[in-house]
Design goal:
This protein has one domain: Ferritin, core subunit, four-helix bundle (Ferritin). The N and C termini lie far apart (35 Å). It has 9 helices and no strands. Helix content is 65%, strand content 0%. The model has no long low-confidence stretch (mean pLDDT 87). Helix 5 runs antiparallel to helix 6 and helix 5 crosses helix 7. It has 225 residues and is mainly α.
């Protein structure tokens, strides 16, 4: 059975991915795509909350857990922290993350309790829609004048595959290989994964967390909503 540590690490990823994804709602001129991005970000936030609550974190305890931790206390996968610089990088990041989530779900559902199974079944149907959306964009960009930008994004963001901080690695082994195989079928090449400090993600993540936590840290007594 997955431990609370593993589920909380997964929740950290979902929370951070959702936050970064939501920042792109207004940066793309296609209204339908903006709506999809907003919907997906909400899904990821709901998944994060569900995992946190399954582990017993609720209400103000959950607020404090998220908004009073230091950046190095988040057990995040480095890919989750990546802040895309353009739409092609956003597509590649989200596609790679959905491949990882699919592997996580496959592993988790073999070990889950009945209560967790219900949560994971709902999550799987939503993540399937996310995956279909982002692989569709991979194919669209591959057959468009933006292919070179997609290839650049695959090279850059692909380096984050296989990197782990303190998050559990039970699902990491097949991550890069799965994505590489799918992309090769589309005539695309994924950048090689880095295994050391070549990808510097900690400092940008610390800056991001600082912005996310600033209001709560200034006014921890305020309850919103």
């Amino acid at each position: 059975m997955l431990s609370e540590t593993e589920l909380q690490a997964w929740a950290d990823d979902e929370f951070v991915v959702a936050h970064i994804l939501s920042s792109h709602i207004t940066e793309y001129t296609h209204l339908e795509e903006c709506l999809a991005i907003g919907s997906f970000a909400q899904d990821e936030l709901a998944h994060a909350r569900s995992f946190y609550e399954y582990c017993g974190l609720r209400g103000r305890d959950l607020d404090r857990y998220i908004f009073l931790r230091t950046p190095d206390a988040f057990a995040v996968t480095p890919l989750a922290t990546y802040q895309p610089g353009n739409f092609a990088e956003l597509v590649v990041k989200q596609y790679l993350y959905e491949v990882l989530d699919r592997l996580r779900l496959d592993t988790a559902q073999k070990q889950a309790t009945d209560a967790l199974q219900t949560l994971l079944t709902t999550m799987r149907s939503e993540e399937r829609m996310h995956y279909d959306h982002w692989i569709h964009w991979i194919r669209v960009l591959a057959d468009s004048p933006a292919r070179s930008r997609l290839e650049s994004a695959l090279e850059k963001v692909g380096a984050y595959c296989g990197l782990s901080n303190r998050s559990p690695a039970i699902w990491d082994a097949a991550w890069y290989q799965q994505a590489e195989s799918e992309l090769l079928a589309a005539g695309l090449r994924l950048g090689p994964p880095e295994t050391g400090a070549e990808v510097a993600w900690q400092e940008p993540f610390a800056t991001l967390i600082g912005r996310m936590q600033s209001i709560f840290r200034e006014h921890p007594e305020v309850i919103l909503g």
